[in-house]
Each structure stands twice: as structure tokens, then as C-alpha cells.
Amino acid sequence: xxxxxxxxxxxxxxxxxxxxxxxxxxxxxxxxxxxxxxxxxxxxxxxxxxxxxxxxxxxxxxxxxxxxxxxxxxxxxxxxxxxxxxxxxxxxxxxxxxxxxxxxxxxxxxxxxxxxxxxxxxxxxxxxxxxxxxxxxxxxxxxxxxxxxxxxxxxxxxxxxxxxxxxxxxxxxxxxxxxxxxxxxxxxxxxxxxxxxxxxxxxxxxxxxxxxxxxxxxxxxxxxxxxxxxxxxxxxxxxxxxxxxxxxxxxxxxxxxxxxxxxxxxxxxxxxxxxxxxxxxxxx
Length: 284
Hints:
By secondary structure, this protein is α+β, with helices and mostly antiparallel strands.
């Protein structure tokens, strides 16, 4: 296989563009929209670029950037007159509750799943109105698919998105964000797909986010049944025939079952530790 073919197979779509808030008077929403404009592909942006992407005036963008600059959320290159995300964003990322524990628990099961399927294994979580790749183990095969840790995708497309939405109620905030821009026909198709996910425990898709790619995904649940993530097996659609999907789905469900077991054990340990701490405090 040529290097060009392999390179083409790994090509992924552009980042999901930030959603511009409907309320133009919301300074906080506009500042957050500015932050969401920065992507891995475009880590440095100028005032004009941000203005064009968000349909805001340059003076408004400049004022928002100066406020973010003061808080360390963006940094400025005085020579190129461009802005990047600031180090304060890293500090905020470290404060996300449960993220480190979830990755730590899922990682060995992801490694096992990659070894038995030979495909790329990814862990996704809901991040506002998109799904975000929290962790990934790439396939060792030359022709493979790779999302990339930190990349975002639409919350209504792809097997992982459907796995994340499987337990959502129609009135939930996550559901409203996911379907806000769907037509009646698209909404009906999504609801039909989710009914299948609930029935068999996993979702599948082909070419929904990346042409020529396919994936199978299942929800990762906490002890109480809450869906906290989605685990996916992804690769070229040519390797995802009906029989292959059934085999991968069986192994995927085995992996998510093991993860649920370990999440339950971690939850029980946390509860017992908290109870012991409370008991010790009462006797002091």
C-alpha cells in the first residue's frame, strides 16, 4: 500500500465549528465562543480570523480577547499579532472531576480490545454540544482510522455519539443540544437508530463523520446506570462487514462490561473511604 493511501485513510474532518450564541448581548457566551474557535489545526488566530468565524465585529473580538488575556486564558504573540490558548486552560483541564480516574480505569480494557480487534479504540465523552475524544489507542495496521485525542465531532453523528445519547431523555440539556439543528427527518432517523442501540446495547455507523470509515460503539455506564462515556472500535469500512461488526460488538460489550465492573469497584471504594473518614472525624 502506498504512503498516499495510508495518509488518506488517516485524514479526518475539520474540527466542529463553535456554535455562536443566539443571544448577541451575552458577553460571557461570546467569550466562550472565542475560546472554542481555537483548534488543534488552527492553534493561533488573529482578530480578523476570529471575527469572520464568529460573525462579530473586530472591536468586539479585540475586547473579548483582552479580557481573556488578563485571566491567562489566551496568550498573544506581539510579533505575529496572533492569539493562542493560554496556560490557564491547562489548569482548568486538570480540574475536570473524574477524567483521570475514567481514563485510568478504561485504559487496560481499551488495550485488550485493541489487541483482539486489531482496530483503533477510542473513548469519547460529551463536551457541551459535541463529543470529545478523551483517549485513543491506534490500530497497528498501516490502513487505519485515527480521531486524535482532544478532537471533537458532532453529537448526533457517528456510532460513539449514538452510544452517548442512548440513555438521554428528550427533555435533557444534552439531548436538546444534540438535536437543536436537525430537520424532522434527521431527528426521526436518529431516534430510530437510538432505539436499536437500546435494544442490542451498541451502535454502528459507516461514513457518517468520515468517508470510508466505520465504527461500532457502546455506552460506558456508572454503577447507577448513568452513561459517562462511549467506547468505540473504528477502522476502514472495508473491514467492517456484517460478520466483522458482530464479532467486534461482542468483544466491545465484553470490554464495557469489565469497565463497568471496575467503575463499580472504584465507586464502592470511594464510598467506604468517605464513610471511614466521617466515622474517624466523629470520634476525634
